[in-house]
UniProtKB/TrEMBL annotation:
<dbReference type="InterPro" id="IPR018865">
    <property type="entry name" value="STK19-like"/>
</dbReference>
<feature type="compositionally biased region" description="Basic and acidic residues">
    <location>
        <begin position="201"/>
        <end position="211"/>
    </location>
</feature>
<dbReference type="Pfam" id="PF10494">
    <property type="entry name" value="Stk19"/>
</dbReference>
<feature type="region of interest" description="Disordered">
    <location>
        <begin position="201"/>
        <end position="233"/>
    </location>
</feature>
<dbReference type="GO" id="GO:0046579">
    <property type="term" value="P:positive regulation of Ras protein signal transduction"/>
</dbReference>
<protein>
    <recommendedName>
        <fullName>Serine-threonine protein kinase 19</fullName>
    </recommendedName>
</protein>
<comment type="similarity">
    <text>Belongs to the STK19 family.</text>
</comment>
<feature type="region of interest" description="Disordered">
    <location>
        <begin position="1"/>
        <end position="42"/>
    </location>
</feature>
């Protein structure tokens, strides 16, 4: 007799149930790690002892420098590091070499005073004035740049630069000769005035006549560089020198409205924007009051005086050197780097070895000093030497050098507390 469905289902084999796994242990809650203290408190919290100021050069190096010209050549020879044969691409290597080739052979006056720290500043100035008067050096000045804008250049280097620009087609032979005669006859002059410019076209441009010569001697066909010229420049020659970068207009050297770092309202008028904003729109007070024109420096004889001064400045030109702005930009950026690095310390001071290591991004592994080619020295400053950067910073009066007595020579921001 067939079994019923109920009986069949009643004999099902019951599978053993798997034992329940123990409950998983809960993971411990992760606690946030405390943030490290700020970087400023990590760098030298204790103040270094001050055992006296130190010069840039060692006594052995100072004995090898006797005059200003020798000091200038010493500084120039230690400005850039040789570009390594490995580590850079060919494009980067070419970029570095082209940048250095366009750098003028200038030396700032502050750097010279810093290197000749053991010599009296008045003695250095007298020697510079004597060399400039003899025509061996040329003083070049950029307005509104302080001590950084005043530099010296050897006349021989300036002659080579004139010949190179002429060879590249940026300057005509006649113009080069006339400008060189002007520089030789007026060694102390910094500005080409309206009385030094004569009307006339002259033979200028890219032509090279029989007297010129690509990078010839001081005065082309003249043996002594003075020639038979009258020492004046024509207007067309002045225009050509301006395009080549050897002259700059004096009209932009001294703005009539004061410092460029002033606020907009202080740069153009003596009326405060915060003051006039309190009055209703459309009233006289909203535009500065009845004396707004007078407060802005306009009207009457003052306007005629400024107009005459602007005309005189527009007809004058300051003697310049092509690439001087590039030099100033590099020096200013390097000095600011030193100032920012010292500002990250507690007392505004640190060992020179620490600063140099940060600048060169050097790492010592297995006793070998490995200089990183992608640190600030090569990435931002085109491979300049640390000695040159330190000399510029000391010459500008940004930092001082002192003897720590324990970690060698120290560097501190001038004006930092010493007690």
């Amino acid at each position: 007799m067939p079994q019923s469905l109920r009986s069949i289902l009643g004999y099902r084999i019951a599978k053993p149930r798997s034992q329940s796994s123990p409950p998983k242990k809960s993971r411990p809650k992760t606690t946030t790690k405390p943030r490290p203290p700020s970087q400023k408190t990590l760098f030298f919290p204790d103040k270094f002892p001050d055992l006296g100021d130190l010069p840039i050069l060692t006594p052995q190096e100072a004995l090898s420098l006797r005059d200003v010209v020798q000091t200038m050549r010493y500084i120039r020879s230690r400005m850039f590091t040789a570009v390594p044969s490995r580590g850079f691409t060919s494009a980067r290597t070419a970029e570095l070499l082209n940048y250095r080739a366009g750098m003028p052979r200038l030396i700032t006056m502050g750097h010279i005073h810093a290197v000749l720290g053991g010599t009296s500043p008045s003695r250095v100035e007298r020697e510079v004035a004597e060399l400039v008067g003899k025509g061996l050096l040329r003083r070049v000045r950029v307005e509104r740049r302080g001590l950084l804008g005043e530099a010296l250049m050897e006349m021989e280097d300036l002659r080579v630069l004139l010949g190179r620009v002429e060879g590249e087609g940026g300057l005509g032979g006649r113009t080069r000769e006339a400008f060189w005669r002007f520089l030789r006859r007026r060694p102390m002059v910094l500005v080409v005035g309206a009385g030094d410019i004569r009307e006339g076209k002259g033979r200028v441009g890219g032509e090279h006549d029989e007297v010129g010569g690509g990078g010839g001697g001081g005065g082309g066909g003249d043996k002594d560089g003075d020639g038979d010229g009258d020492g004046f420049l024509t207007q067309s020659q002045v225009d050509e020198l301006v395009r080549a970068g050897f002259l700059t207009s004096c009209a932009t050297a001294a703005p009539a409205n004061g410092n460029l770092h002033l606020r907009p309202e202080d740069r153009t008028t003596l009326t405060s924007i915060a003051h006039v904003s309190r009055f209703a729109s459309g009233t006289v007070s909203a535009v500065g009051g009845r004396n707004a024109l007078h407060l802005a420096g306009g009207g009457g004889a003052t306007a005629r005086k400024h107009h005459g001064a602007n005309n005189a400045a527009a007809s004058s030109f300051r003697i310049a050197v092509p690439g001087h702005g590039r030099y100033l930009k590099l020096a200013d950026a390097a000095v600011r780097w030193v100032q920012d690095a010292l500002s990250a310390t507690t007392w505004g001071q640190g060992p020179e070895a620490w600063l140099r290591e940060r600048f060169e991004a050097s790492q010592t592994r297995h006793g070998v000093d490995n200089k990183n080619l992608y640190g600030p020295r090569w990435k931002d400053f085109w491979g300049v030497e640390w000695e040159w950067v330190l000399g510029e910073a000391v010459g500008l009066g940004i930092v001082d050098l002192f003897d720590t007595g324990s970690v060698g020579r120290g560097v501190r921001i001038r004006g930092a507390m010493r007690n």
